[in-house]
Amino acid sequence: MVKLTIVGRVSEGLPLAQGPRYVNNEENESFSLYKQQGELILKEISRGALPHPKMTIRVDHQYCFIYLVENGIACIALSDSSYPRKLVFHYLQDLQKELQKFDSSLVEKITRPYSFVGFDSVIGNIRKQYIDTRTQANLSKLNANRKQDLDIVTENLTEILSRRRNSVLHEITSSSPSSTPRPVSSIWGSPRLEVIAVKWTPITIILVVLVVVSWASLIMADSIVISSLY
């Protein structure tokens, strides 16, 4: 059974609608976590880390995420692991078909998360059609095109989280100035000495010139005084 549905725009990973919740009191405690995981999957789709147009993502022994991307919109569903995956994909396809009935310009104007409230009721109505897997319509869907199940990529959520964590760490280290070691100067022996030398060498040169000029002036003055005595 589908427990959670998130419909989002792929271009910036913005969740547009989510539909009603279908969890009991025990599941409600972990519902927020599953919702955050669904939003993370949407972000990963948006940034191209999940390039497949449809995919199954195993969360744990109890649940899995299944998503379908069409026309720049991602429909993501959290369902029981025991629920037929093929029916979940049919469910997501029905959502995509309903989305096409809406004005695309209207959908593009949405800027706030989950503000496409007009689609929440659509999600609820379509979900009701997939509660009972033994209806004639659902049995027909299960028996048709069985080879399509082989085309679905499956991955664990832990692997996706690991790649995301490594990507963030790489971005941090790449942007940090201290992450790129400066080459050691062959003249000064260390970057620190080179900085000191660059800072103080011009000042030192100026002071030396002033001392030399002053010394030369004193010598010339003494020479003039001595010559005048003779």
UniProtKB/TrEMBL annotation:
Superkingdom of the source species: Eukaryota
Assigned GO CC terms: endoplasmic reticulum membrane; Golgi membrane
Keywords: Coiled coil, Membrane, Protein transport, Transmembrane, Transmembrane helix, Transport
Localization of this protein: Endoplasmic reticulum membrane; Golgi apparatus membrane
Record-annotated Longin domain positions: 6-123
InterPro entries membership: Longin-like_dom_sf, Longin_dom, Sec22
Parts of the chain that traverse the membrane: 200-221
Bilayer topology annotation: Single-pass type IV membrane protein
Gene Ontology biological process terms from the UniProt entry: endoplasmic reticulum to Golgi vesicle-mediated transport; protein transport; retrograde vesicle-mediated transport, Golgi to endoplasmic reticulum
GO MF entries: SNAP receptor activity
Gene3D superfamilies: Longin domain
One Pfam entry name: Longin
Similarity section: Belongs to the synaptobrevin family.
Protein name: Longin domain containing protein
Source organism of the structure: Trema orientale
